[in-house]
Every structure is written in structure tokens, then in C-alpha cells.
Design brief:
This protein is of the alpha/beta class. 40% of the residues lie in helices and 15% in strands.
């Protein structure tokens, strides 16, 4: 078979999608009714949206001709205005509809924002462990990822970040509640990062995909209360987790108007416009599902508590972070985490992701860590997971 040519070197050097790689570990392994697979590898709802939301989507599909046509590149005006109004209230700031863009999921929001900021040879600071798709996009774009190792509680240190900034730095990226660590960043840390980024004339990207499942009450930070937030802050959000709309691909960017003019170039080239039915669903959800989302949050917090209790009873394991959909653990095996995670499929019927998928190559900490995405496992399932992990031979 002839080699594939030509191939973009940056694409060739980008690692394969981790979740897809982990799924391949299931090939050839048999799971029985007595010991079914416990899949805690991916952080995505598996249940359908609530029935009223599905009915709203169906009604639009049947009766709204505009739902099947191209729409504005930056998204539906009504949805942009509604998100701006709700975020202004939630964060105690001033956000207008023309400071919001709707995207095909939050991953696209990240790619669009970064495309407006950094190109080949530029640098972007990512706290490590990082969300692997963020690293993948930077690799494909030819930008350099600068790791910022997290400290106690898996919280990044603004002073440590300051030491990493160079003339090539274009942005610092934060994810809170964090994927993969579950950590909820304190508001004073968020503020310190905003001030650091502003002082150096770079962007602060804050991905709040999991904001609806934060264990704290009230606004998680005061960044939008800053009257000049738009000169530095770029905020990302996903409707997928809140309303179970993963298949509809709806996300958002909140940023300055000038930034969104550049983002529009990317979005027009890649997708022309966001999914119309997904946007209709997101708007309906914002206007009607506040109480339902509160119930979803309460259930996730129950599962979080079950994870914390369960890990406390596991000999040799250490809980490094837990929140939103994730628990991040230090494992007791002598194997590196990539080999250990593969062995768990065969030996315990458990599919989770190794820390090596979230850290730089050769990182010693990543070799000792694993991520558990527990959002799709109820409290009984978490108990079963702990039972299987407790039986693993080190």
C-alpha cells in the first residue's frame, strides 16, 4: 500500500482522538450480563432531551420553514439576545446580543476563538492536565502549547503562568468546572488570570461548558462585572450538557464585537451557520427549562458526593479533583496509566481514560492519573464501579 501524500505535517503529528482510541480497547473483550461494561470514558449525556423540548424541536421541524434554511453566520438574533440577557443577570455584568456568537458546539467555539488569536509559531498557555481537544486544535494549527502544571486541588497558579508568558504568547485558556479534573476555580484565581492577561495584552479564554453543574451557588466569578471585560475575556459555553443537545451541536462565544468580526470569518468558512433546529432548541431551553436544569444539577451533585465517598474507601487511590462530570484520580498500580486503563477493560470491565491523554508526553504525573466521567453512572453504578476498582490487583 502506497503512503498517503501529501499530508499536512501538523495534522500528522496530532494525536488520534482519545475517546475513539479508548473505544478500540473494547474490541475482542466479552462482557456478560453479570458483569456488564461500566463506561466512564466520555462526558456526554446519553439520555434524550426532556419531552417538551423534543416537542418544540419537532414543531419547528414541521412548521417553521426557516428552520431548514441558512441563517445568520453568528447565529439567531433571538438566541444571542437571550443568552446575553441571562448571562448579564447571572454574572452581574453588561453583555449585549452583538457580543454573542452561536457555534456548532463548544469545540467549534474554541477553534474559532483560537483561529482569531494564534497561528503557526504562536504560543498558548494551557493548564495541565488539559482538555485534549484543546491541545489537538493547537497542534493542528501549528501553535505551541505551553503547559502550566496545576497545583494543589488541581488549580492553576497565576504567578506560575506569568513566568511562562513570552512575546509569542497569545492567550491563556481556563476550563472551570474543569475537564478533566473537575476542579472549580475560585473567583479570586479567575480575577488574577484576567488581570495577568490584560497586563500582557493577551486573551483570557474561559471555557464554562459545565457551568450549570457548578456546586457553588451564585456567580462563579466576577469577570463580566468588569466594565472592560471585552478587551481581554473570551467566554465559551455549551448547550449540549445543560439540555442534552449533544447531537444538535450548539455552543456559544461571548467576546468583544471586534473579536466576533474575526470569528465570523472562521464560522462562515467552516459551517456557514449553526444548526437551526439546535438553536431553536437552545432558545426554548433557556426560556423554559431553568427548573429542569436545576434538577439535573442536583442529580450530578449527588453523584459527585457518591464519587467522593467511594474513593475515600479505595485503598491506595487518591482523589485529586471532583466536580461537574469528572473525578480525577491517582491510581495505585505499578503500571503507567495508559497500560493500567487498558488492563481495567479486561480485568474489571471498566472503561476510563488515562492521565497520559491529558498531559504532555512523558509527564510523570499523567502516568499516575486517570479520569472518571461519572455523569452517566447513577449512585448505584458508582457503587458498582468502586467495588470493581477495589478488587484490582496492584
Amino acid at each position: 500500500m502506497r503512503a498517503l501524500r501529501p499530508l499536512n505535517p501538523a495534522m500528522a503529528e496530532t494525536f488520534l482522538p482519545p475517546v475513539m482510541e479508548a473505544r478500540r480497547w473494547l474490541e475482542g473483550v466479552t462482557f456478560t450480563p453479570e458483569r456488564p461494561l461500566i463506561n466512564v470514558s466520555q462526558a456526554a449525556p446519553v439520555d434524550s432531551p426532556p419531552l417538551p423540548l423534543r416537542e418544540a424541536i419537532a414543531d419547528a421541524a414541521l412548521n417553521d420553514p426557516q428552520a431548514h434554511l441558512y441563517g445568520p453566520v453568528l447565529g439567531m438574533g433571538e438566541l444571542r439576545a437571550e443568552l446575553a440577557a441571562q448571562w448579564s443577570t447571572a454574572y452581574g455584568g453588561e453583555i449585549s446580543g452583538d457580543q454573542v456568537a452561536i457555534t456548532q458546539g463548544c469545540n467549534q467555539a474554541f477553534c474559532a476563538a483560537l483561529s482569531s488569536l494564534a497561528g503557526a509559531g504562536d504560543e498558548v498557555i494551557l493548564p495541565s492536565p488539559w482538555y485534549f481537544n484543546h491541545k489537538m486544535w493547537l497542534d493542528m494549527a501549528g501553535a505551541k502549547t505551553v503547559p502550566l502544571k496545576c497545583g494543589e486541588g488541581m488549580i492553576p497558579d497565576p504567578q506560575a503562568a506569568a513566568a511562562l508568558i513570552t512575546p509569542k504568547t497569545r492567550a491563556i485558556v481556563l476550563v472551570s468546572p474543569n475537564n478533566p479534573c473537575g476542579a472549580e476555580y475560585p473567583p479570586e484565581i479567575m480575577r488574577a488570570f484576567l488581570e495577568l492577561a490584560r497586563a500582557h495584552g493577551i486573551a483570557l479564554i474561559v471555557d464554562e461548558t459545565y457551568r450549570d453543574f457548578d456546586s457553588r451557588s451564585g456567580a462563579p466569578h466576577d469577570l463580566f462585572a468588569d466594565p472592560d471585560w471585552a478587551d481581554t475575556l473570551i467566554h465559551l459555553y455549551s448547550f449540549s450538557k445543560a439540555y442534552r443537545l449533544t447531537g444538535h451541536r450548539v455552543g456559544a462565544i461571548v467576546a468583544g464585537r471586534e473579536r466576533l468580526m474575526q470569528v465570523e470569518k472562521f464560522l462562515d468558512t467552516v459551517a456557514i451557520c449553526p444548526n437551526q433546529l439546535g438553536q431553536i432548541a437552545a432558545l426554548w431551553g433557556l426560556r423554559n427549562l431553568g427548573d429542569w436544569v436545576a434538577g439535573e444539577r442536583a442529580e450530578i451533585l449527588r453523584r459527585r458526593a457518591a464519587m467522593i465517598r467511594g474513593v475515600e474507601g479505595l485503598e491506595g487511590w487518591k482523589l485529586l479533583g471532583c466536580g461537574a462530570y469528572f473525578a480525577y484520580l491517582q491510581h495505585p498500580s505499578a503500571l503507567a496509566s495508559n497500560a493500567f486503563a487498558r488492563s481495567l477493560v479486561r480485568d474489571a470491565g471498566v472503561l476510563l481514560l488515562p492521565g497520559t491523554m491529558f498531559t504532555p508526553a512523558g509527564d510523570a504525573d499523567g502516568a499516575r492519573q486517570v479520569r472518571v466521567a461519572f455523569a452517566n453512572v447513577d449512585t448505584d453504578g458508582i457503587g458498582a464501579l468502586m467495588g470493581r476498582l477495589s478488587q484490582i490487583q496492584r
